[in-house]
Design brief:
Blueprint: H1 19-32, H2 40-44, H3 50-61, H4 72-85, H5 89-94, H6 101-118, H7 129-132, H8 141-154, H9 157-162, H10 187-199, H11 221-226, H12 228-231, H13 233-242
Helix pairs in contact: 1-10
The protein binds a DNA duplex through helix 3 and helix 6.
Length: 262
DNA sequence: AAGTCAGACAACCGCGGTGTC
DNA sequence: TGACACCGCGGTTGTCTGACT
């Protein structure tokens, strides 16, 4: 005897999410936290597969997501990490706070790939294109750094100087302005989040999860444990700006005492 | 103004690893 | 211990949107 199926596939809705569905999902997650995704659709009143809910949350609705195109630094980091890790998008995404594997994958396929080809670099091997025609061996470290040097030359001076191959905790400069990456206002997100905040200022992100699921939120363990991103009013304001919380600005940020909730 | 096309990105599919019964 | 479901990941497809004719 295995488990129950995650959802009744016959009664599952597919396709783009509506604002109403988003609102329900956000409300549910903020109220109950991320528990087992299987039960989320049922409890949240959604006719979606749990898998679909998880994807929607992690790729689009998560409050810590940056929106807009990757900036130069992030792009460089992706290129470097890709050279080392290959198509391990989730691993790459782990080094870019606020970015999802899906987002990075899409950006790679639509922007970076072409950029590299244009520069004569094989996006798969990260070697010069003419060379990869004759050799399909994995790039060695020297070649890799030579190619990165070429990339740096293509960058504006300040970016090139700033760039260096990532270390364990490189690049995760949370203070890097998200506005510079061109966060666009999304009216539907604006509505969903503002309503959610107004409806439930006691959003219980820590929720009932006993399995430490919040790693998916993309914070370091120390950040997760303290949820400093929420407790820090400045961060709240930043988040609210990033997500276009128009109505939220009407609320006195300092009055949001959520300390007990975490 | 309408039609077509290409680019961008959201969402789905299928697989592998892991956990549960 | 085997069967099956869950979860996460990477690849692929579908849909939307803006540019162009």
């Amino acid at each position: 005897m295995g488990r129950q199926p995650c959802c009744d596939k016959l009664d599952v809705k597919k396709g783009p999410w509506t604002a109403d569905e988003d609102r329900k999902l956000v409300n549910f997650i903020l109220t109950h936290g991320q528990c087992c995704w299987r039960s989320v659709p049922k409890l949240a009143g959604l006719r979606r597969c749990g898998k679909s809910c998880r994807l929607r949350w992690t790729n689009y609705l998560r409050p810590d997501l940056k929106r807009g195109l990757l900036n130069e630094d992030e792009e460089q980091l992706v290129i470097d990490l890709h050279a080392r890790l290959g198509n391990r998008w989730s691993k790459i995404a782990a080094s870019l706070p606020g970015r999802t594997d899906n987002e990075i994958k899409n950006h790679w396929n639509t922007h970076i790939k072409k950029k590299l080809v244009k520069m004569g670099i094989d996006p798969v091997t990260h070697e010069p294109l003419h060379k990869s025609d004759t050799s399909h061996e994995a790039p060695n470290e020297d070649d890799h750094h030579r190619n990165l040097d070429v990339l740096r030359l293509e960058l504006p001076k300040d970016c090139a100087a700033e760039f260096s191959p990532p270390t364990e905790n490189s690049s995760t400069d949370e203070s890097r302005s998200t506005s510079e990456s061109g966060n666009e206002e999304d009216p539907s997100m604006n509505l969903i989040w503002s309503e959610t905040f107004l409806n439930d200022l006691s959003w219980n992100i820590s929720g009932p999860d006993s399995r430490g699921e919040y790693g998916e939120l993309g914070f370091s363990s120390s950040e997760e444990s303290s949820f400093s991103w929420l407790l820090d009013n400045r961060n709240i304001v930043d988040n609210h700006r990033n997500f276009g919380f128009g109505e939220f600005s009407e609320i006195d940020i300092n009055s949001l005492d959520m300390g007990d909730k975490f």
